[in-house]
Amino acid sequence: MQTEHFDIVINGGGMVGAALACGLTQHNFRVAVIERCEPAHYDTTSLPDIRISAISRTSAALLDEIGAWSQVLARRCAPYRRLETWEWESAKTEFSAALLKLPELGFMVENQVLQRVLWERMEELGITLFSPAALDTMTYQPEQEQWSITLDQGTAMTCSLLVGADGAHSQVRQGAGIGIQGWDYQQACMLISVECAYEPGETTWQQFTPHGPRAFLPLYDRFASLVWYDSAARIDALKKLSPAQLDLEIAQHFPACVGQVKTLRSGAFPLTRRHANTYIKPGIALVGDAAHTINPLAGQGVNLGYRDIDALIDVLICARRKAQPWWRLDTLKHYQRKRYADNLVMQTGMDLFYFTFSNQHPPLKVLRNVGLMAAQRGGWLKRKALSYALGL
Description:
The protein is of the alpha+beta class. 36% of the residues lie in helices and 30% in strands.
């Protein structure tokens, strides 16, 4: 039996991999996606997912281009129009959509909603989906300039370009022999879905404390998501509490503006930073968390992934339009140049912000709060920083 050949095989059909597959297919690339587990069907009565993504306007525009955003809007998402951050109440910095004359800064979207919408869009476009399935072997054939792939259930195929969109522990990255640089932060993060006494409004905020940030993400109806950064030991202790006990801890350790909340569900994960030494090899490209993970402080993770796929699609279609071999390393280097430095700058900026506010040395504490007060009055610089964070 002849092995089936695809232009591009994407390992990972999550929020980034599925969006990439849709974008490439719309530009007439023959695409296959390998995914371990199909996302659950959408249930209007389900509780909010603990995993929330702050989708920027630029990312929403990309999702609209691939025909997915209207379905997200038709299901569950919440626009946010203000962002506030502070350590001292007297040194609060506020960003608003009005600052850039925008209708909103972005949207809070449950990962389960976005993943399901993108999966259904892949099905509509007729993309070949191997699921449930996992990558078993990958072998490069330099003479044919292609990758030979086998799956755990025995299916074999070849492709000109193999894309790793398979997360922080990427099989594609490891199989290609691409190393990573990074470290583990000395903190963990707990995500808590809550029901509020009142509608949560359209402001997302973040307060810095000596033990780590506390954040509030408004969702639909009266639901919201709380983000609690603390030491790994403290988060482990919180994980063992009942919802009622966790409510009491929230009341004691979150600012009063969170109001009265009722815990619905929670989950936790360690904080890590990872950056691949390269995003490319012959016939290989990495996108999203397979290429880089970032401190979730500013909610930039998935948005950086969408910037990756926007750049990769643009590079591939430009090369094909010029009748150039779009799968070759010389072409893929254009993608690397577009994305590597930008992701590194964002990672470094978030780390600088994180470590600055983690240090309790009194002079630095005063200095950073003076900095927040200056940022509040920053004018042009404030608008520029907000535009960059939104990818505008």
